[in-house]
Structure formats: C-alpha cells, structure tokens
Amino acid sequence: TPLYSSAASDVYKRQMKLPGAYYSYKTHKGPTDDAAKYDSLKNLYPLLKKQASYYAELSQLAFNQQKWKEALHYINKAINQETKEQQHLFYKQKAFIFEQLNNNEQLIKCLEDYLKYSPQDSQALLKLAQTHLKLHNTKTAVSYLSQYLTQHPNDYDLNLEIAHYYLKLKQYDEAIQHANRYLARYTANSEALLLIIDAYKKNKQYDKAVPFIKKYLATHPTDVVKSYQLAVHLEQQHNYQEAVEYYKHCLLYTSDAADE
After folding, report:
1. Which of 3, 54, 99, 133 has a CA 20 to 30 Å removed from the CA of 149?
2. Predicted TM-score (pTM) of this structure
3. What is the distance between the alpha carbons of residues 54 and 117, in angstroms, rounded to a whole number?
4. How many Cα atoms within 13 Å fall on the side-chain side of residue 180?
5. Helices within 101-189 (DSSP H only)
6. CA-to-CA distance for 74 and 17, rounded, in angstroms?
7. CA pair distance 120, 128, nearest whole angstrom
C-alpha cells in the first residue's frame, strides 16, 4: 500500500519543486529566457496562487511568446484575484492582448475602461485613436488624438496628421490651427501650406489664404495653377499691379514648359 494517495503524492511533488522553481525563475533574465521563466513561474502556483501580480506576470511572459490565448487566460485570473478598486490596473495589458487577437471591440472597451482611471496615459490614448482610425471612426479618433496633443503639444508630426483629419471632418479652424503648429517648426513645408490654403478656400476665406499661397509659390514657382488662381483673386480685389506680376509668372513658366 503506497504511503500517499495519488493526489497527495502530486501535491508533495509540487511542493518539492518550489525551491528549484523559484531559483530558476529568479536566475533567468532577458527576453531570451521568457520560456524558461514562464515554465518556472507556473511551478510556483502553490506559493503564489492568491497574488494578482503572479498571474499578470504569467500573462506578460505568455504575451512575449505570442501565446495570446494563454496571456488572456492569465490576465483574466489576475483581474479576478485583484480587489475591485485595483482591477483597472490590468485593463491596458488585457487590451493589448485583444489587439493581437484582432478583437477591436474588446480592445476599445478595455482601453476606455482603463482611461476612466488613467485619463493621461498617452500610450492608451494613441492606441485608441489608431484603432478607431482603422475602423474609419475618424471623429472619435480625433477626440483621442486631441487629448493626447494637450499633453504633447510639440508633437509636430501628429499636429499635421490631425490637421488632415480635421480637414476631412470640415472643421477648418481646427485644421488650420494644427497645421500652423507644424509650420512653427517647419516654416516652408509645402504639405502644411497647401492644407491651410485648402482649408481657407473651403471655408470661403480666400483672402486669408493669400499669404500662404505666396509663401508656397516662393519655393514652388513652377506651380502655374496656384499662380493663376492667385492672379485672378488679386484682380478681383482690384490689386491689378500684383495680379499682373502673377499673370506674367504664369506665362513665363507656361512658355518654359512649351519650349521643353
């Protein structure tokens, strides 16, 4: 007759593994050791099974190995083990797992719940914006990008990007404002200048577009279309002398093109 029952024997074997498992877990460092750390940490279950951070660490190690379903399983256990007041700490980690599972609906839900507690988290704001853009929810995406830019106003590339979205949404003042922020750093950038020109024209404020058209033409003198449009506008405003100069400009570059 065996000294232990089968179940009791299994418990004894797991307990005997604990010192070695703990040492193994602590001595494996770096991403190349994720698999070894993962296996060692699972063996520490009897010692750490009531700690939310234990499951969160298992989830992260599974994530690092692209074991998405296991990562989701463990992050759910971490949330269930945590107090209700602290569960939100794991929502962002869960969201990034859903991203890998191509579950955008749950990704959005997790990040929205997370931001209720951590509204200043830049990474979460950007991820939400990117996800909504992927789903063609431009207006919602812009609201999150705008929140991000209140914290990072000197993110010049994002200022230009959001200017394009505002233009698409026909929010011309906002488009101009953000494109101007970009121009504060890159003063002669043609993309920003053309965006501002387009926004003013669509908002029926052609007079305000004129300085930007002139600035654009200073570095793009061969753009005959813009030169002609400016000449016509100046003529309509009875600014004949300046209009003639831009008409001449058009003729000069049109004839150059014909000669080629």
Report:
1. 99
2. 0.80
3. 22
4. 12
5. 104-115, 122-134, 138-151, 156-168, 172-185
6. 21
7. 13
Q: How many CB atoms lie within 10 A of CB 106?
A: 15
The string of DSSP letters for 224-258 reads HHHHHHHHHHHHHTT-HHHHHHHHHHHHHHHHHHH
Nearest one of 59, 127, 62, 56 to 88, comparing CA atoms: 56
The Cα 176–Cα 163 span in angstroms is 7
What is the distance between the alpha carbons of residues 138 and 122, in angstroms, rounded to a whole number? 18
Task: Determine the average pLDDT of the residues in 236-241.
Answer: 93
The answer to whether 128 and 143 are in contact (CB under 8 A) is no
pLDDT tens digits, 189-218: 999 999 999 999 999 999 999 999 999 999
> What sign results for the dihedral spanned by CA atoms 40, 45, 50, 56?
positive
Please work out, in degrees rounded to the nearest 5, the angle formed at the alpha carbon of residue 178 by the alpha carbons of 203 and 205. Answer: 20
- What the block records as the tokens of 229 is 């449009």
Tokens standing for residue 225: 């279309």
Measured torsion, CA atoms of residues 77, 83, 89, 93, in degrees rounded to the nearest 10 = 10
The three-class DSSP label of residue 26 is: helix
> Distance between CA 129 and CA 144 in Å, rounded?
5
What are residue 200's phi and psi, to 5 degrees? -65, -40
Which residue do the tokens 């830049």 mark? 122
Residue 10, pLDDT above cutoff 60: no
Q: Which tens digit of pLDDT belongs to each residue from 51-60? A: 999 999 999 9
* 123-127 long-range contacts, CB within 8 A, separation 24+: 123/92, 124/92, 124/95, 127/95, 127/96, 127/99
| Identity of the amino acid at 114 | Y
